[in-house]
Amino acid sequence: MPAFLRTHLTALRMLLVLTVILGLAYPLLVTGVSQLAFADRANGSIVKSDGKEIGSSLLGQNYDLPKQDPNNADEPARPDPKFFQPRPSAGSYDPKASGASNLGPNSDDLLKAVNDRRAAIAAFDGVDPSAVPPDAVTASGSGLDPHISVAYAEEQVPRVAKERGIPAEELNQLIEKYTEGRSLGFLGQDGVNVVLLNKAIGERR
């Protein structure tokens, strides 16, 4: 058999072997291990309420009132006062638009947006603008973070308690329950998962 033909047959055999190992066996092994060890996370950490999928604990979402005119795409969003609100999102919590605004700290547009958000949140929650925490007026890098600071969650307690008729102490207990520690124990700050917190409030009997 000619040398060049043996070379090509050897290459073809290696291609087939590696395709089976890396294209079939390895993905199946990883998938099997992930399903056995942490199926919930491997499947997207889906959150369900009354058997219905309502989101993922890894992805934030908007909690807005229905549009008054569904055909008006320019109608501004109106946050629902019965829910704890997430931090701003440059992509309106659309997973396909994940990312930040790319505005720098010296940007006049960013400064205006922060000031406008602070005034709107202060009016919405009935607090002094100085009481609005920083994460309430700034978006995360991904625009999909489901967490807010404990301070921002506690700042919203009086509004949610009033709208739902729930004792503030009960809401504070839920905030504590759904507060997650720092990443790796030392990165960032404690955060409250708004998706899980609002789910618990919605299921309250």
TrEMBL record:
It comes from the Bacteria. InterPro entries: KdpC. It comes from Kitasatospora saccharophila. It is found in: Cell membrane. This is Potassium-transporting ATPase KdpC subunit. Residues 58-109 are annotated as: Disordered. Belongs to the KdpC family. It is a single-pass membrane protein. The gene is kdpC. Part of the high-affinity ATP-driven potassium transport (or Kdp) system, which catalyzes the hydrolysis of ATP coupled with the electrogenic transport of potassium into the cytoplasm. This subunit acts as a catalytic chaperone that increases the ATP-binding affinity of the ATP-hydrolyzing subunit KdpB by the formation of a transient KdpB/KdpC/ATP ternary complex. The system is composed of three essential subunits: KdpA, KdpB and KdpC. Signal peptide: none annotated. The keyword GTP-binding does not apply. Keywords: ATP-binding, Cell membrane, Ion transport, Membrane, Nucleotide-binding, Potassium, Potassium transport, Transmembrane, Transmembrane helix, Transport.
